[in-house]
Amino acid sequence: IVSSFEGGLSSGGKYRLGNMTCVCDVTELAPGRRGGRRGCLIRIRDGTAEQRNLDILADYNRSLNEEVRKATQNIRDMQQKIVLGMSDLIENRDNNTGGHVKRTSDIIRILVEEIRRQGDISLTQQEAKDIVRAAPTHDLGKLTIDNAILNKPGAFTDEEYGIMKSHAAKSGEMVKILLDGVEDERFVQVACNVARYHHERWDGRGYPEGLVGTMIPLEARIMAVADVYDALVSKSVYKEP
């Protein structure tokens, strides 16, 4: 019986005897100042009811954790649908970017796969997935831009350009409001970076903060490549592909 204890002789443990759960408590006996174990006091008691309660609690916790997981996933799915729905609203308003969200997402998927294949830049599989998931959020701030500016066929005035540039910072703010508190902090930060900094430039001449080089988060640099590439190869109201 002793050899079947969970935890071994020194700490005691539990074992099954038919339908009974037996609990063993082991106390070492070391009389005298010189020490040295002289024996053990072994106490075995019926812990069946106690174990039954522990099993019920464990089952409840597993069930509760599964319910929480499902509820959290449902909320995340709803958030993703909201983000994609808002992206569709932008595309319906912006005559320049029809299909832009899907195309840039596809481009980013290609880019992150190639980055991971080459291995020159550290990018984990989870980070790559997060960047692809975050891509549709990058232009949410355009919902705040007036149609007359968003769809202007000619060049912007300085004032109009300033208003148009504000969409990047507003995109970051909207992402945080939509995702904060439900998505894990890592993904929220990636999505915020993608939305806020995808118009920064390596030479510091971008916006909204004029970041330079590696000051720009990697995910935003990847988004910028996809965004600019799609703009170059796509037809718009003011240029051919």
Helix content: 40-55%
Rg, nearest Å: 30 Å
Distance N to C terminus: 81 Å
Shape: elongated
Tally of alpha and pi helices: 7
Largest sheet: 3 strands, antiparallel
SSE-based structural type:
mainly alpha
- Provide the succession of SSEs: EEEHHHHHHH
**Low-confidence sequence ranges:** 1-10
Q: pLDDT average, as an integer?
A: 84
Count of strand segments: 3
> Strand order across the biggest sheet?
1-2-3
* Approximate strand percentage: 5-15%
Outline the structure in words.
- The protein is mainly alpha-helical and 241 residues long.
- The chain is built from seven helices and three strands; from the N terminus they run βββααααααα.
- It has helices spanning 48-93, 100-118, 125-134, 147-150, 158-179, 185-197, 218-233, and strands spanning 13-17, 20-29, 39-46.
- Strands 1-2-3 form a three-stranded antiparallel β-sheet, with helices on one face.
- β1 (13-17) and β2 (20-29) form a beta hairpin.
- The longest helix is centred in the first third of the chain and has 46 residues, at 48-93.
- The protein is elongated.
- Mean pLDDT is 84; it is low at 1-10.
Task: Quickly list its features.
241 residues; 3-stranded antiparallel beta sheet; mainly alpha; elongated
Give me a quick take on this structure.
With 241 residues, the chain is mainly alpha-helical. The chain has helices spanning 48-93, 100-118, 125-134, 147-150, 158-179, 185-197, 218-233, and strands spanning 13-17, 20-29, 39-46. A three-stranded antiparallel beta sheet has the order 1-2-3, with helices on one face.
